[in-house]
Amino acid sequence: MRSKPVVIGIAGGSGSGKTSVTNSIYEKFKGHSILMLQQDLYYKNQSHMPFEERLLTNYDHPLAFDNDLMFEHLEQLLRYESIEKPIYDFKLNTRSEETVHVEPKDVIIVEGIFALEDERLRDLMDIKLYVDTDADLRIIRRILRDTKERGRSIDSVIEQYVSVVRPMHNQFIEPTKRYADIIIPEGGQNHVAIDLMVTKIQTILQDRAE
């Protein structure tokens, strides 16, 4: 009988470096049976709403995500069934009609700011990580990212951070740290923690293969 895939949940605030940690782990297993499930792709479908109304959505709130669909997809992957992963159109602020066909793998990384917020998702995870980075570093990284990659002004990034991102982080994201098996400070720069995680994942895979 084929053993169950290993599921790793990686959470942390915006700009914490969780994507860097995820990519580092993914790269270590490149060529092996591994896939990533980004929570950002599971924002709720808003095609029934006028565009002006979609702009008012708080994307830093747990209710913005379709966790029902993500849970369903994760359960399918754990049964070694393929899924049609959604695509989110950030220009239209709604889900695209297109999807990405994803075949099941032996290692599944679930990554997102609220990866550890939903108990149903947590219960499917073998390892839960929280990337913990100081607020000043997170806001600097967010400013650099949004101004360079998303064409936003510094003023608009700071205003959004102060009015929405920071309070949502303190209310909903920071508390999920208590569910983590491992807390990784400083994100992708913490090579020791990443190497330890890779070793742990390899051990689990070996144990399940025996």
Write a concise synopsis of the structure shown.
This protein has 210 residues and is an alpha/beta fold. The chain is built from seven helices and seven strands, in the order E-H-E-H-H-E-E-E-H-E-H-H-E-H. The chain has a five-stranded parallel β-sheet with strand order 2-5-1-6-7, with helices on one face. Strands 3-4 form a two-stranded antiparallel ribbon.
Structure characterization notes:
It is found in: Cytoplasm. ATP binds at residues 12-19. The structure is a single chain. The protein has 210 residues and is α/β, with parallel strands linked by helices. The protein has 7 helices and 7 strands, in the order βαβααβββαβααβα. The strands form 2 sheets. Strands 2-5-1-6-7 form a 5-stranded parallel beta sheet, covered by helices on one side. A two-stranded antiparallel sheet has the order 3-4. β3 and β4 form a beta hairpin. The longest helix is centred in the last third of the chain and has 20 residues, at 154-173. The N and C termini lie close together (11 Å).
Topology diagram in text:
Blueprint: E1 6-12, H1 18-28, E2 34-38, H2 51-54, H3 67-78, E3 83-89, E4 94-102, E5 107-111, H4 119-122, E6 127-132, H5 135-149, H6 154-173, E7 182-185, H7 191-209
Parallel strand pairs: 1-5, 1-6, 2-5, 6-7
Antiparallel strand pairs: 3-4
Helix pairs in contact: 1-7, 5-6
Write a concise keyword list for the protein shown above.
7 helices; Uridine_kinase-like; five-stranded parallel beta sheet; alpha/beta; transferase; ATP-binding; 210 residues; two-stranded antiparallel sheet
